[in-house]
Design goal:
Blueprint lengths: L1 H13 L2 H23 L3 H21 L3 H26 L14 H21 L9 H4 L4 H12 L1 H22 L10 H11 L22 E2 L5 E2 L5 H6 L6 H41 L1
Catalytic activity: a quinone + NADH + 5 H(+)(in) = a quinol + NAD(+) + 4 H(+)(out)
GO cellular component, one term: plasma membrane
Keywords: Cell membrane, Membrane, NAD, Oxidoreductase, Quinone, Transmembrane, Transmembrane helix
């Protein structure tokens, strides 16, 4: 106990006031962010708290001289992975319809035991740490911080690095398998989807646009309904309140009647033409026989 107290006294003597204030403030923020990540009910809030914790860890790395790790922590973890996770959660989301019940029995107890085991390992690692001086720091950073990290990753910790990569690949494949759904029913056509939307009444089609049968494109002319009456809802609310809506429905109906009349006349001509030609042919045949 006295040895640990002496080591703590030596560490406090070698630490400046600014470093101590920075440690306690940022450490408190990091712990609060980690706890909020676990206990927040919404996944988006948990992701934001985890991103804040990662930023605080990056500040710790930068303060301890590990500039490369600090930048990687911000760019890769906070800027890429966490933002991607946040966007996926916001786009896909966890709604109230999703089941939050345990799919694996006893998984909470397994998680508790795993957390307890990791806590014991963490306490053991902290107990073996040197609190008076940095052991091996000069040797690790002899050729630079980046080269030192690369040398440790691909020499001493190469198996742990490869296993971590395999776990990440397995997690990605597992996420794809869990989210993949086989479609057994026939895909509905665009017509069927449109009829379903109209039948349910949730997504009604839009009203006619301003203008009448492509004869007018002014914004103050209301569109015509199927019965020929104008729909003022197709005109801007401002123009409706001003009373600046032009009614051309009578003109359009007159044009429509004229078009129908011309069509009827054309049909009558086609009907009379073959009949007249038939009578002339019969008359000619009778005259030829006589």
């Amino acid at each position: 106990m006295s040895a640990q107290l002496a080591a703590a006294t030596t560490l406090s003597a070698g630490t400046s006031t600014g470093e101590a204030v920075q440690f306690w403030i940022l450490g408190t923020v990091a712990v609060i962010g980690a706890l909020c990540t676990v206990f927040m009910r919404k996944a988006v809030h948990s992701a934001l708290c985890l991103a804040g914790t990662m930023i605080v860890l990056a500040v710790f790395y930068l303060a301890n001289g590990a500039y490369f790790l600090g930048i990687v922590q911000i760019v890769v973890y906070t800027g890429a992975i966490m933002m991607l996770f946040l966007f996926v959660v916001m786009l896909v989301g966890v709604t109230a319809a999703d089941s939050l019940k345990e799919t694996i029995k006893g998984q909470r107890w397994l998680a508790l035991l795993s957390g307890l085991g990791f806590g014991i390992l963490l306490i053991a690692g902290i107990g073996n740490a040197s609190v008076s001086e940095f052991t091996g720091l000069a040797q690790a950073n002899a050729n630079g911080n980046v080269e030192g990290i690369a040398s440790l990753i691909f020499t001493k910790y190469v198996f742990a690095f490869e296993i971590t990569g395999a776990l990440l690949i397995t997690a990605a494949v597992g996420a794809m398998v869990l989210t993949h759904r086989e479609r057994t029913e026939r895909a509905r056509t665009q017509r069927e989807l449109s009829e379903q939307r109209i039948r349910d009444g949730k997504h009604l089609p839009p009203l006619p646009a301003p203008g009448v049968y492509a004869r007018h494109n002014a914004v103050d002319i209301a569109g015509l309904l199927p019965d020929g009456t104008p729909s003022e809802l197709t005109v801007s609310k401002t123009l409706r309140e001003r009373g600046q809506i032009r009614d051309v429905s009578m003109e359009a109906l007159g044009d429509l009647k004229a078009l129908e009349q011309r069509a009827e006349e054309r049909l009558e001509r086609k009907a009379v033409g073959p009949a007249g030609s038939g009578r002339s042919d019969s008359t000619r045949s009778e005259e030829a026989s006589k």
